[in-house]
Amino acid sequence: MPAKLSVNLNAIAMLRNRRDLPWPSVTGIGRLALAAGAHGLTVHPRPDERHTRHSDLPEIRALIDDEFPQAEFNIEGYPSEDFLALVEKHQPEQVTLVPDDPAQATSDHGWNFVADAAMLTPIVRRLKKGGFRVSLFCDADPAGMTAARDTGADRIELYTGPYGSYHSDSAKAAKELERLGKTADAALAAGLQVNAGHDLTVGNLPALAKRIPALAEVSIGHGLTADALEYGMAGTVGRFLRACGW
Q1: Which helix (H) or strand (E) holds 133?
Q2: Euclidean distance between CA atoms 221 and 96, whole angstroms
Q3: Does residue 103 register a pLDDT over 80?
Q4: Average pLDDT in the 114-122 region?
Q5: pLDDT at residue 106 tops 70
Q6: Any idea which residues carry the catalytic annotation?
Q7: Cα radius of gyration rounded to whole Å, the chain
């Protein structure tokens, strides 16, 4: 089965937050994405609420529950106590833990699974006890997959930023793709499922999907939102679904 598509709404929220107005509607755009065939919605509610606001979360949860019960809600963020409480309140199907500093503009690196094991393991246990699927953001490093599995997580999410950044250099992109592929191979061998996200486009998704045929999910925000300015949200979701192999 091709990778499922989760639409990250952060860029939509950031555009809304430029003005003290309720549009573009984060929930309304999420509705368009799901109606067009997206499999889920992703948000990253940072402490300063510079894009997704905490008040968006109950609306997105209700949208999925009431109109698209087959879809999934994915909340990602640094596992502070405030974040964990937010997750437990709004009950996403998946929680993606990222090692972000609150001041970071965007996620730009994965966990060090060996060094961070003592912190991650009890947090993963708590989330799993709450019934959440847990995914851990990771760099392209096959050597870390056993340690990632030992935290108790269900999945990793490959940080594909470096791959996406080589959009004008096919040789470097191919090299980075192989690093991602070998990391996915090691993760799958360790019993982990594999997600991916960051700077993915309709141009670079097909090669990623071909190299990692067992890819479970991709979470895409910036590139998808940029394309939606040209093709509309519904048309863009269709383009990304086709790029995933649907």
Answers
A1: strand 133-138
A2: 15
A3: no
A4: 97
A5: no
A6: 44, 76, 198
A7: 17
